[in-house]
Structure formats: C-alpha cells, structure tokens
Design a protein that fits this description.
Number of helices of chain A: 11
Number of domains of chain A: 2
Largest sheet of chain A: 6 strands, mixed
Shape of chain A: globular
Structural class of chain B: alpha+beta
Oligomer: heterodimer
Distance between the termini of chain B: 22 Å
Strand order of the largest sheet of chain B: 1-2-4-3
Shape of chain B: globular
Strand order of the largest sheet of chain A: 5-2-1-9-20-19
Structural class of chain A: alpha/beta
Strand content of chain B: 25-35%
Distance between the termini of chain A: 22 Å
Number of helices of chain B: 2
Number of strands of chain A: 22
Radius of gyration of chain A: 21 Å
Radius of gyration of chain B: 11 Å
Largest sheet of chain B: 4 strands, mixed
Largest interface: A-B, 35 and 26 residues
Helix content of chain B: 25-40%
Number of strands of chain B: 4
CATH topology of the largest domain in chain A: FAD/NAD(P)-binding domain
Order of helices and strands of chain B: EHEHEE
CATH architecture of the largest domain in chain A: 3-Layer(bba) Sandwich
Amino acid sequence: MLVAGGGIGGTIVANRIAQKLSDEMARGEVKVTVLDRSQKHYYQPGFMLVSMGEMHPKDTFAEERELLDRRVGLITGDKGTITKLNPADKAVVTADGSTHNYDYLVLATGSHIQVDEIPGFKEGAQTFFSLDGAQKMWDSVRGFQGGNIVVDVAMLPHKCPVAPLEITLMLDDYFKRKGIRDKVNLHYCYPVPGVFGIPNVNKMMTGVFDQRGINVHSQFTLAGVDPSGKKITSKEGESLNYDLLIAVPPHKGAQVLGDSGIGDRRNWVPTDKYSLQMKGHDDVYVMGDTTDIPISKAGSTADYESYVVANNVSVDAAGGGSKRDYTGSVFCYIATGLDQATYIKFDYTHPPNPPTPSQIHWWGKLAYNRLYWSIHARTII
Amino acid sequence: MSSVKLYKSIDSTSANCAGAIGELAGAINDAYAGEGVEIFIKDEATRKDVYAWAKKTRHKIVVDESVGDKLRLVVEKVA
C-alpha cells in the first residue's frame, strides 16, 4: 500500500493501517509506505497561533519518521516526490525516475496556497497559511500602532475554514488588551454573503462581529491587491484601503494531480462522500483536503476519515471484517479571542450548534494542539 | 432540458463550511464561460440564496427542478 503525502491525513491513516494489519505486516504479506518530498511533518493548524504569538514556531513541526509507526516505510526527497500518478497501471512515478507499484493507494496530498493567482497578493498581503508567513505576520501585528486592518478571504473553499473568523476575533482581543483597539479599524471581507457558510454559525458570528465593532464587507470577491496604493478591490466593484492586509490565498489540490489528469481544474479529486474511494477507481482512497467533497478541509476531517479509510483498505487487502462509511464528521474549535473559544461539530445529517464561547473551549483548543504530537498523530486514540 | 455543458456537480445537501454559495462560487470561478455548474441543495432558503447570488454575479440559472427530496439547479457561467 502506498500513502501519497505525509501530512496530518497521510500520517494518521498509515499508522491506523499498521495497527489494523499488524499480523499481515509481520508476516510480510502487507507493506505500507508513505511518500512525501519532506522529512518534516508540519502541523498547519498551529500556524494561526504562531501568527498571534500564541505558539512557538518550533512547536509546529516534527520529524515525520518519529511520528510514523515503525512498521510503516517512509520515502522522502526526490525518491518520495511524486511526479506522476497512473491509476490505470496502479503505479506512481517519483522525481528520481522510480516507478512504485501498488495494490492500494491512499491520496492525502492536501491543499496548497496559490499566492500568485491574484494580482498583487504576494507583494501586498500577509498570510498565516504558511509558517514563514505566520512568523512575519506576528511581527507586523506586534508593531501595529493603529489604522485599517483588513482580513480578506480570497476564495472558497480553503483549508481551516473557521480560521478567518478566529484571526479577526483574536486581533480584536489582542488590540483591546494592548489598549489601542480604538485606534484599529477591523474589516472582514468574505466572498459570499455573511461571514461564514453555515447559516446558524453565520448568524451567531455576525452577532459577535457586530458587538465587537468589526466592519463586514460581503460579498467581496478579491480581484486584486495594489501594494503601493495599499488598496484591495473586489469583483463586485468595492475597494478598501488597508494598513495591514491579512488574507487567505486561493487554494488548490496538489499540482501532480492536475499533471496526471486527475481531479477538476483546481485539482480536487472526485471522491465518493461515503466510501472515500476515488470515483472510478476502487483501489484508490482519497482523504483530507485532497477530496472534492463539499466539507471542511481541516485536520479533524482527515482524522475522522482515517478511521474509515484504514478500515476499508484493510478489509480490501486482508479480507474479513466489514466496510464502513464516512458520515461527514467534522470538529473544529473556533477561537473567539485570546482566552475564549466555541466549537462546531457536525456531520452529513446533523448541522452544528456552537455553544456559547468560553475559556474551557479555549483550553480545549490549546490542549488539542499540544496533544496532536503525542496522541493524534501517533493514533493512540 | 438544458444543453449547457457541465463543468462540475456539487452535492450541497449537507452542512459544509463554505456553504452552498461558497462551493458554487468557487466552481463557477474555475468554469469557462458557457459551462454550467450543477448543485444539489435541500431547502428553499438556499434556493433563494442561489438566485440572489446569481443575480448579483450576473450568472444564469438554466435548470431549477426537484429531484426526489432534493432541489437541482444548474448555473451557467456568463463571461
């Protein structure tokens, strides 16, 4: 079995498969290998906390080898960088020219930011969707003395969908604590009406934004950034001046998927929402941000999906047991300041009902981040 | 029956963070002019949202029908 991608989804699913098929692996009947260009494993949800000085950058990455079950193989560098996927031949090609054949493939190649897609974005916007960007943003936030801060979401869907809400409310709280909130105008630009896509969460968060004096601009679809004039414009014809622009760039699935003729024009892979199999290829499973399922692109989604993928691919390979369906489970904490949070938990048939923000949920969010390395990535639970 | 070529089909009958309009807007962004995006939704409120969004963005709804307990809309991208 090959697992393409050693991020949250790929790592967790490889570890779960190893647990499921430990006997078969011990007998040499099953081999599980993770392919990734990097030896480093990044915990991307931590980047937002880095951008607000709430997490140290070094706490957002670890050696992938240390997280993987010792029975799982890991290939990195050119040998682990996939350049071509060929599901018809059950093979992937890597940058060193090797061909890796598989019986079963798990695609967990994630979503990737596209800072060049919108004119001026790279030069004018700060973003916490990369570790480097998050560190730079914290410097900018710390040094900000007053003016317009614009938080903008360029395009949906993107990874960690609640992050724009969180960063806006954390900024509000940060400048309040600093005693200069009255000198900071906070603006939130969203490409669809409202501040979030789920109706009751949108209603709740619109109320919170209103109470906190945050200016909402929606629908505002980012058309361009003018870095010298410090102005953004929307496709709807609105323009807004900024002193600090914090933006979520457009996202795409991995380029190798497009290069291999897999996926739509944004490289999201057509996936059955219940079985998590790639449409038309029963021997390929897809998980996490990689799928085209209209659901949260988030680490928790990948974690929930990993139970289904690990179970079903194990049944495929070893027989016995019964297959499971993914029922759309998602869980995301939503920070509403620097010491409070709420959360959304939902699935295909049960919409979320976020509780009143409290400090308990903030501690829950921090605890989850801390426990990721010791519990979640290693699939202790 | 519409003859618009479909770029993509979206099942937005469950809660999702981008919402029906977010998923639709993303797909329309990537569609070519003249192509359509098909979306399945559950309720009348979302249907109204799709109409309001299409009016504002000047895209055209070319199919609006019930399919079992779902609503099926096809939005054609206008350049």
